[in-house]
């Protein structure tokens, strides 16, 4: 099953790229940037959830993303992929 069958993100399976996070993947303590979510801009497209390389994004009961910062690496993929700029990366303090 190669990537050639996927023409766009819409064709990807409805699941995060990785499916579990472990104690060994607790990377939240070394990230430089963290994602900050703006619920007012979110359209619940779930693209951030699909593209997060760690399963740090879950969806709440209303379908909005919830970012769990303890496992977040601060890579910024979620912010980069968000079509409405509902996630921005800010310097970790």
Written description of the protein model:
It is a single chain. With 93 residues, the chain is of the alpha+beta class. It has a domain at 36-93: Alpha-Beta Plaits. The chain contains two helices and four strands. It has helices at 47-51, 77-81, and strands spanning 33-37, 57-59, 65-67, 87-91. A two-stranded antiparallel sheet has the order 1-4. A two-stranded antiparallel ribbon has the order 2-3. The longest helix is centred in the middle third of the chain and has 5 residues, at 47-51. The radius of gyration is 13 Å and the shape is globular. The N and C termini lie far apart (42 Å). The mean pLDDT is 82.
Question: Which key features would you list for this structure?
Answer:
93 residues; globular; Alpha-Beta Plaits; 4 strands; alpha+beta
């Amino acid at each position: 099953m190669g990537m050639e069958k996927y023409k766009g993100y819409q064709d990807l399976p409805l699941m995060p790229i990785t499916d579990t996070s472990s104690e060994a993947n607790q990377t939240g303590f070394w990230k430089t940037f963290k994602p900050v979510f703006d619920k007012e801009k979110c359209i619940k497209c779930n693209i951030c959830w699909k593209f997060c390389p760690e399963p740090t994004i879950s969806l709440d009961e209303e379908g909005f993303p919830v970012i769990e910062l303890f496992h977040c690496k601060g890579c910024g993929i979620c912010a980069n992929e968000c079509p409405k700029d509902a996630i921005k990366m800010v310097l970790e303090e």
